């Protein structure tokens, strides 16, 4: 029997048999209950509003835009696509035609794109219903979802704590069950981190497997559309819908992936990075060790491995991220689109300066300035080019380990449970990022598939574990993640109680 964790969030939840937690459960329910389109839309409209009121999960409620006759046709069996009427949410840095895409920033508070991101369109084509755009750190530059123009996102398990970032709104939306699944973007850990804090599966596919067209960029070489679900099987289902080549994104791979590795546990060799097994991490790594032991008990071979350059991943990412930010943010000048300041009419340059000062928060402005410094002619060799070389060494570490030693890596996601908003806000953004992304950023720099799987509770808060697989071994990774999920049965034991 599941243990119900009750909070103010769930005590005030709308009184309805919806929402549900998995795609299969949802499809079975609507087939059995013979719901009308209006009842279905109204149920999720209530839950979106509730998630917004309690966790500030959304920047906009799109349930009012859902085409009721189209939904009714699906429910009546006239059209039954793969994700028939399944409600989902999307981080507010994915473009949706004729709907504001703000990146949780004043700069884009009124920006309405003329096109829809490829991944969103593929989900809509599969019959899924977009119920809302979700809150986030401004332009995805954060690790707690507290640096939003629209206010901080809080954790549905305990609203005094962070949801994680930068995709915290999407995590809160799924954890609160106002959406069956949600899209986020994972650049250095921005889906895996909040997934761990909110008791969810957070899956980052291999770089190049999923189109970035319509995703407003942070770091072009590590941004990946990623997925929040309650169970691994749903992550696989959503991935199957959104993955694949896209002529609108030149970084999408068109060649088939290599043959999948054998995912039977007694054939899997699991690596434990020894660089993480140091005294200052010991208070936080008990769950990590328990997963390794349980995998070994069920037939997997667990061995120590070395990723000697992983300790430099955060510093490397900081430089490369700032450089891309300086380039990507240059388009926001108040001329073609976005916020435009009226504070200065002295000159065009003064208007640019005023617009960017008003439109960007301190975190974004700081990264732009840092990136411009790193890209100065006198600085490039010392910072940008050096960071690029370190990134290559990090990639080579992973390649060596996967080619010669193990099939998958088992690592922590974060240091533990979600910190309180109060303690998190005491740290500056750079320190927050260094602590929150410590275990996740290296896999992003290497473009590898990675997943966070919920395994246990510490007190009343969830904890996840991270698995990282070789490049393009996404289905193998999902298979191993399902093994871990079956060993712990998190969602059979723990529930928010909705």
From TrEMBL:
One of its GO terms (biological process) is mitochondrial translation. Its main location: mitochondrion. It is found in: Mitochondrion. InterPro entries: Amidase, Amidase_CS, Amidase_dom, AS_sf, GatA. The active site is at 91 (charge relay system), 166 (charge relay system), 190 (acyl-ester intermediate). PROSITE patterns: AMIDASES. It holds the Pfam family Amidase. Keywords: ATP-binding, Ligase, Mitochondrion, Nucleotide-binding, Protein biosynthesis. Belongs to the amidase family. GatA subfamily. This is Glutamyl-tRNA(Gln) amidotransferase subunit A, mitochondrial.
